[in-house]
Amino acid sequence: IQSGELSKMQKTSGKLFVISGPSGVGKGTIIHKLLEKNPNIKLSISATTRAPRPHETDGVDYYFISRDNFTKLIKEDKLAEWAEFSGNYYGTYYDTINNTLQNGYDLILEIEVKGAMQIKNKIPSAVLIFILPPSFDELQKRLTGRNTEKTEEIKQRLAIFEDEYAKSFEFNYKITNDNLDEATEELQKIISREKQN
Ligand code: ADP
Ligand code: 5GP
Predict the structure, then answer these.
(1) What's the chain's Rg over C-alpha atoms?
(2) Where are the beta strands (DSSP E) in the chain?
(3) Beta-carbon contacts of residue 22 (< 8 Å; ≥ 6 apart)
(4) Could you report the per-residue pLDDT of 45-103, keeping only the tens digit for each?
(5) Is there a contact between 18 and 127 (Cβ–Cβ < 8 Å)?
(6) Ligand 2 pocket: which of 46, 100, 160 to mutate (most atoms <8 Å of CB)?
(7) CA of 30: how far to CAs of 90, 94, 102, 114, 152, in Å?
(8) Is the CB of 133 under 6 A from ligand 2?
(9) 3-state class (DSSP) for residue 58
């Protein structure tokens, strides 16, 4: 399916939401809470060349694939968007977007900002939401506290915050994740409002 057809399809089927924000801001946590209460919303499972963290499962959290296989996906035009982030590749399958929306479900892409900009260009009907931390200090605390990356990796992820923040002005909505319940409620309201349009 071509990207033009994708945007046409949006009018009669589920809605596409893109959620971005710096690493450690709480995107995964908020989305998890949202999905518990919204069986009609699905989360896209991306392909990545990053190694799985403990407790991550292939086919559930990501499709964990080799660099060679990722390159193949790009060449075969299987990805609606893809980007390099902190030394690894991440991408969204066209098939996931097509199948999920066609089946009447809404779909969330939890992706970084470069990928979000690609979706914005390809699928103008997508709703873009950026999650902000209450402060840089708090972001640092959360990312460190999550205990999933080594110090060097954490530094790399924090170093791009200014660039990511600059892109946040291209998004339709911004939510500050200070209080988790309030941030989730804000996201819920945005989605409900957009569904009415
Ligand atoms: P992301 O998916 O954006 O990388 P996570 O959802 O993994 O971020 O959250 C990073 C860490 O911050 C986790 O340990 C999570 O429990 C914690 N966290 C998320 N939201 C909040 C919040 N509102 N207040 C305090 N800690 C939070
Ligand atoms: P993590 O390694 O913490 O799981 O993810 C790192 C970053 O990659 C996060 O900002 C996450 O949102 C983003 N990401 C996850 N999947 C995709 C994807 O399919 N495409 C893009 N562009 N970014 C993704």
Answers:
(1) 16
(2) 16-20, 41-43, 47-48, 63-64, 79-85, 88-93, 106-110, 127-132, 173-176
(3) 133, 139, 157, 158, 160, 161, 164, 165
(4) 999 999 999 999 999 999 999 999 999 999 999 999 999 999 999 999 999 999 999 99
(5) yes
(6) 46
(7) 20, 24, 25, 21, 26
(8) no
(9) strand
